[in-house]
Write a structure and sequence with these properties.
single chain; 280 residues; alpha+beta; Uridine Diphospho-n-acetylenolpyruvylglucosamine Reductase, domain 2; Enolase-like, domain 1; 4-stranded antiparallel beta sheet; 25% strand; globular
């Protein structure tokens, strides 16, 4: 029989995580459908459940000296309605497209990250935001850059005895962000391709900082350093002309039921251009 564990403190949760093979849940919007699918294919077993929703202090979005801290229990709905600067506009846009309202009210940003799906809507935005991952374990706390946290298809650097407790987003003065997603329909759909971006401009309207990321076009969502470098010093109003096919050379899209690899490459290029027009 599956055990259900709901600790009241982070220390208790870490102690359980260190001694038992458990599935950590917050919103449960990914783990329960996955379990149902496995049962349908004749696999009735399920790990013991570690429900962290009773742990205090994990639901807040807090401004810090360096930026913002987003607790691991913050839902997409909470993010969408939070008073945040234009730096978060892209992530908020994604918040309105992650499933239906019921899912948005339960699902968490950190849960979306920890599943490490290439099609996770939050991940390209968090990459563009240069986010870091706060992790707690028996040895204490550590902070890991998001680029190092994502290690492969549905794989992360999280150790078996650890729990992700928050995300940290650094401030970037005067920056704004945007998000573009392509699916087979407008809402309630898995992405065919996604583009997220953050830009900051100088007094003349030229790009001083650009961070761009693509999702659903590789085993892991990726930043685009060559394109970011090419955008340096370009007038934001003209930036949509910059992205070209060679800037996507590092991608490895696949053929699947949603789209061919070739289509994904073309779609990604169009999304990047649309993204930059949106930012302008």
């Amino acid at each position: 029989m599956t055990a259900y564990l709901r600790p009241r403190s982070l220390e208790e949760a870490i102690a359980i995580r260190a001694t038992r093979d458990v599935a950590v849940i917050a919103g449960g919007t990914d783990i329960y459908p996955a379990h149902t699918a496995r049962r349908a294919w004749g696999e009735p077993t399920h790990k013991d459940v570690l429900d962290i929703t009773a742990i205090p202090g994990l639901r807040a979005i807090e401004e810090t000296a360096a930026g913002w801290r987003i607790g691991c229990l913050v839902t997409w709905s909470a993010l969408a309605t939070a008073a945040l600067p234009p730096l978060f506009d892209g992530l908020k846009r994604a918040a309105h497209e992650v499933g239906g309202r019921q899912v948005q009210n339960r699902a968490t940003l950190v849960g979306n990250l920890c599943t490490a799906s290439p099609a996770g809507d939050g991940i390209p935005n968090l990459l563009a935001l240069d986010a870091q991952v706060e992790i707690a374990g028996p040895q204490g706390q550590r902070i890991v850059p998001l680029t190092a946290f994502l290690t492969g298809y549905r794989a992360t650097a999280l150790h078996a005895e650890e729990i992700v407790t928050a995300l940290h987003v650094p401030n970037l003065a005067g920056a704004r962000s945007h998000f573009e997603k392509l699916g087979a329909r407008r809402y309630l759909v898995i992405s065919i391709a996604m583009a997220a971006g953050v830009v900051a401009t100088d007094a003349a309207g030229r790009i001083a900082t650009a961070r761009l990321a693509l999702g659903a076009c590789s085993a892991v969502a990726q930043r685009l350093p060559a394109l970011e470098a090419a955008l340096q010093g370009v007038a934001l109003a003209e930036a949509a002309q910059v992205p070209q096919a060679p800037h996507l050379a590092g991608l490895s899209p696949i053929d699947d039921v949603r789209a061919s690899a070739a289509y994904r490459r073309e779609a990604a290029l169009t999304l990047l251009r649309d993204l930059l027009r949106g930012l302008a």
